[in-house]
Write a structure and sequence with these properties.
With about 325 residues, this protein is of the alpha+beta class. About 35% of the residues lie in helices and about 25% in strands. The protein has eight helices and twelve strands.
Amino acid sequence: MNTDPVRPVRHAALTARLLLGVSLGTALAFALGLFGDRHWLLDLLAHWRVQYAAVLAACAIGLLLLRHPRSAALAMLGVGLLALSVLRYGGAPLPPAQAAGPSLRFVTFNHPGGQRHARAIGEWLERSGADVVALQELDSPQTVQALAAALPSLPHVHAHFGRWSDVTIFSRWPILQAQTVELVPGGAQAAKVRVDWQGQPVTVVGVHLHWPIGADNARLRNAELQALAALARDTPGPLLIGGDFNITQWSPVFDAAFATAPLTDCARGQGLVNSWPSFFPPAAIRIDHCLASPHWQVLQVRAGPALGSDHRPMLNELVLKR
């Protein structure tokens, strides 16, 4: 039997110190992430705003229960600031906007692997009513063929295989032009097509940018983002850019790259739409994006189901503005 009345008090004090330390560490991580354009390690801290808010909220509740109201209030202040920044970008989830004309459905999906899940992917894409699909990390022509067989409603295909060139585009509509574009020397190669969408030429660019681990990889990824912004400025007419960017909307690098580009993040104002990792929702963030030229109005953006990948497919539905 524990007869020492001091021990519970000590445990409570240690728990309060631990919660306060976690709160301070979380706030520091968020603050350092704001300087992600200075170093790739700091940029890795920029992507977890929702998770930071959840951790601070849990710490605030614990501190309040342990009768540390001032520390709890400071933690809740951090929650409020993070929540405000998330709401300013994502907004509250809204019902899909009403289309003023025919809508185009653009799906992006990073599916690392072979033919094993081709049938399930094809069935979901067929049900989605996709007009254009940009798939990343298809490993061979045989995988493309397996997917093509599962996608009878998207018969037009542009595929190219090479180092940092793993984007394949499937289209319901005829492909008028197709090319593989090296974004920067030694960097990722984008698949660029021009499709005849109901008589309207539309340019679609599928990308899979470098992952951000390591200084060289991060430098290439950042240069690829800048190249996409330049591509948007040089491309006339309706344009969509989508795929795995390996960066979130919270990164200052992402924000700086597209600050002056004629592009809009399709998921902005669509609530929280996350794509990775599909196997652990509490850590989910959005590194798969769709960027649209000013010609488009976004109707909805939503994540699809897990289809054998660590990413979820992203369905973006848009309509041309009048």
